[in-house]
Amino acid sequence: QVRLVESGGGLVQPGGSLRLSCAASGFTLDYYSIGWFRQAPGKEREGVSCISSDGSTYYADSVKGRSTISRDNAKNTVYLQVNSLKPEDTAVYYCAADYAWRPGCRAAQAMGELKPNFGSWGQGTQVTVSS
User: Fold this and answer.
1) pLDDT tens track for 15-54
2) How far is it, in rounded angstroms, from Cα 129 to Cα 94?
């Protein structure tokens, strides 16, 4: 059974940092692309970052330059480090997995937009940026 579990969210002050984790079970991450998405109240789900099975990455303009996505295949976990957090980063953050052969992350790299058409999703972790 494919399962993704996010962790690492919480309340952080503006300018702070968080490292979100996405732990996978029931499948091996090596053959999947992993995406991070977020959804704020009243807003559409936004693609934040993704990493392909070959390690290539994509970042949305909203987080580019202050975020790093990485994967540890030995731990079957993907991480999203976000620095210089802003109040507008407040949202529920979801990780999602899709087969590496599907366009998912590669399409985001080519088109400049990460679409939420990944096949498997976690339950999300809340990130609140507030003083």
Assistant:
1) 999 999 999 999 888 889 999 999 999 999 999 999 999 9
2) 16
